[in-house]
Structures are given as structure tokens and as C-alpha cells.
Amino acid sequence: MPAGGFSERLCFAGEEDLLAVDLLSAGWELCYVEDLVVHHQASALRDPHARRRAGLRNTLWFTWLRQPRRKALRRTAFLVSTVPRDRVSLLAFLDAARGVRWVLAGRRVMPPSVAARLADLYVAQTRSTARRYVS
Length: 135
Prior knowledge:
single chain
């Protein structure tokens, strides 16, 4: 199964999650290299609301594309209960819902072996403040 690079639909804001899972599912290995230092310099011109909207939408899409049904429902419920109850979040959920046809057509649940390898990361992500989708 080819990974195919970054998804054009996700564009930015979480696109690396989908690529990483697809690479692992295709038999590639990913590793952390302590000696490697990478700097990400975010644009000062970006709109934080648009970024949060795209990030939340992409998190939902990734979840629906690759997680088993039960885990996808749990993650969706977690997001519904934890994101700010504002216009940006509502629009993100509507954007995600508009992509359901595309998601269903591209849905390939990750193999259990990949899910097991990522389980600790998902627990850490749930507890992290990095993706709380707050402005």
C-alpha cells in the first residue's frame, strides 16, 4: 500500500498524522533522532481561527479515516466535549461533516499492529495542551 505523500485534502494542520500512519501501515519505520534539530517557523501572517478550524477538521478526518469505528466515535465525542463551544469549532465540525463522502471513500483502518504501537502516543495526545483547539 503506497503512502502517497501528504494529503491534498488535509493541506496543513495535522497532515503529518495521516502520512505517518500510512507509512507505518505500509511497513516503513519511523524513528526519533535525538541529534536532529528541526525548527518550525510559523508564519506571522496566519489567521489563528482559520488554523484552529482546519486543525480540528483534519483531526476529525484523520480519526474517521484511520481509526476503528469505536475509537473514532470515542475520539469524536472527546473532541465534542473538550473544544471551545464557539463559531470556529462549529464551523470545523461542519467542514468535517461536509467531507464525509471523501472520508468514507478513503477509509482504511490502520492495522492493529500500528494501532498498538501508537496507543501511548494517543494517551499522551489526549492529555496534552498542544491540541486543545483554543484560540
